[in-house]
Write a structure and sequence with these properties.
single chain; alpha/beta; 5-stranded mixed sheet; 3-stranded antiparallel sheet; 9 helices
């Protein structure tokens, strides 16, 4: 029946028996017979035929829409089963922002590791461009990333949250008493970026030209190193995501970053390539989504 359903889908998609037959590499009469056999199996008509044209019956329209999901699920199950059979699905490669400080990702990692202990969860870090390249080159299966460009149709773009932006700086700084802060008010304090040397210029351009930090920039390769610079008064650190990790005795304060009196926000998403989707990828994405919803 599956092959008959696929023939039926081809006929509807092409709005033509002849074009569908050509696409499926069978004769027109054969594809017509297969669709009729499907209708007999189901016990109702899918197509209302008139001379050489046809329209979908109401039942046929419903069946077509649901069958697309059915066939997609079937093909995905086959791909996953094949990977498992060949020992290729024992790992899930997940990327996150090197400067990410939110709790949701850590909780999702913990939950996945508990529920799927046999799966090797490989955590990779990078900035926005590095994570995007990892996905493009299939070095990562899924990435937790901020949205800096228009969504691509080649990816699943799952918006997890719209997070408020903040900065962390030394509790000894004169600015530490502010309830909120504008990018222009940080002109005399260097901005500390968590980035590799290769991506410094890209990150600097984003925070200078898009976010609007007007002063100098310092770079650190890890979030811990960046926070040490901030706590020593060397500069301020833009926070990626919720800054709940900072404790009261850390020597740092977290101040909302605003523009025109309104807090600056940024979308955080789970991205993965549509042609690299699978059970573990979607399961981890769903866990991430639930963790973000739990904090709303």
């Amino acid at each position: 029946m599956l092959r008959q359903i696929q023939y039926f889908q081809a006929v509807v998609k092409n709005n033509s028996f002849s074009r569908a037959a050509e696409e499926c590499h069978i004769s027109q009469s054969a594809i017509s017979q297969q669709v009729q056999a499907l209708e007999r199996e189901l016990g109702f008509l899918l197509l209302d035929r008139k001379n050489r044209t046809f329209t979908l019956t109401p039942a046929g329209a419903y069946f077509y829409q649901k069958s697309l999901i059915l066939v997609d699920d079937y093909e995905r199950i086959c791909r996953e089963a094949g990977r498992i059979a060949h020992g290729k699905n024992a790992a899930l490669r997940v990327g996150c922002l090197r400067s990410y400080s939110g709790r949701e990702f850590y909780r999702a990692v913990q939950q996945f590791s508990m529920e799927y202990p046999a799966v090797n969860l490989d955590i990779q870090q990078g900035n926005h461009e590095e994570l995007y390249r990892m996905l493009q080159e299939e070095q990562a299966d899924l990435a937790l990333n901020d949205q800096r460009r228009a969504f691509s149709d080649a990816f699943v773009n799952l918006i997890l949250t719209t997070a408020p932006s903040s900065v962390e700086l030394s509790a000894r700084s004169p600015l530490a008493g502010l309830q909120q802060i504008e990018p222009s008010e940080l002109k005399n304090l260097p901005c500390i970026l968590v980035t590799t040397k290769e991506q410094q210029e890209t990150e600097l351009a984003y925070y200078r030209d898009i976010v609007g930090f007007p002063g100098e920039f310092l770079c650190a390769e890890t979030l811990e190193a960046a926070r040490l610079l901030a706590v020593s008064g060397r500069g301020f650190l833009p926070v990626e995501g919720d800054s709940g990790v900072v404790s009261p005795d850390s020597g740092l304060v977290c101040i909302p970053l605003v523009r025109g009196g309104k807090q600056i926000t940024r979308n955080y998403c789970a991205f993965w390539k549509k042609d690299n989707s699978g059970y573990y990828v979607e399961t981890f994405a769903e866990m991430l989504k639930k963790q973000y919803k739990a904090d709303e």
